[in-house]
Each structure stands twice: as structure tokens, then as C-alpha cells.
Design goal:
Number of strands: 4
Largest sheet: 4 strands, antiparallel
CATH superfamily: Aspartate Aminotransferase, domain 1
Shape: globular
Number of domains: 1
Number of helices: 4
Distance between the termini: 37 Å
Strand content: 5-15%
Structural class: alpha+beta
CATH topology: Aspartate Aminotransferase, domain 1
CATH architecture: Alpha-Beta Complex
């Protein structure tokens, strides 16, 4: 399922971490959706703006859930930066494709709102 998942991620032009060496998941970079035009360094977990971006990460998760997408926030796995999400692809191809389409729709909503 890795090929299908990685192809689907390219649809909304997301960055995928290639550092993983095993497992049935991908790390996807959603930092731009919680950061806006800010500096990526602000997303360090111990940075001065981490509380604000931590809240935005939680809001992003809520938007995803409203669209029927369940991704795990990287912060629960102690990622170095906020904004990384874990996409598990242990489901049938049709459901994965539907989830990836929902993900693209949810991210479009977040992008269009620009954290108003």
C-alpha cells in the first residue's frame, strides 16, 4: 500500500519524510497549514510560539476529523517539530483513496481560512 499512499500524498503536494525505515505509515509534513507565512523554526516544540502552533495543530486535527480523516499528530510521538502527522495506510485501496481525497479537501479548507 506504500505506493498508493505516497502517490495520493502528492495530490495536495505534501512533503513526506523518507527517514522512516519500516512500518505501515508515512510522516507527512503539514507545517505550512499551521504556520501560514511564518518561519518553520517557530514550530520547534520548545520555541516561544509553540503554544500557539500547538493549538493550531489541534485545530487542524479537528478539521481533518470533520472531513472524515483520522491522522495522528506527530506531537503525540514526540516529533521535534509541530505540524508532522502520521498517515497509516493499513486499509483497503479504495478506502485509502477516499481518505486521501478527503485529506485534500480538508487541507483546502484550512488553506482558504488562513487562520482567521
Amino acid at each position: 500500500m506504500y505506493p498508493e499512499a505516497s502517490r495520493g500524498i502528492s495530490k495536495p503536494k505534501l512533503t513526506v519524510s523518507l527517514a522512516s525505515n519500516a512500518g505501515s505509515f508515512l510522516w507527512i509534513d503539514l507545517r505550512k497549514y499551521i504556520l501560514g507565512d511564518g518561519d518553520v523554526q517557530a514550530l520547534k516544540r520548545n520555541g516561544s510560539a509553540s503554544a500557539l502552533f500547538g493549538k493550531r495543530e489541534a485545530v487542524l486535527e479537528e478539521v481533518l476529523l470533520r472531513h472524515g480523516v483520522s491522522l495522528s499528530r506527530g506531537s503525540i510521538f514526540f516529533t521535534e517539530d509541530l505540524g508532522w502527522f502520521r498517515l497509516t495506510f493499513t486499509l483497503p485501496k479504495e478506502e485509502l483513496a477516499q481518505g486521501l481525497n478527503r485529506l485534500a479537501s480538508a487541507l483546502g479548507e484550512v488553506r482558504d481560512s488562513a487562520w482567521e
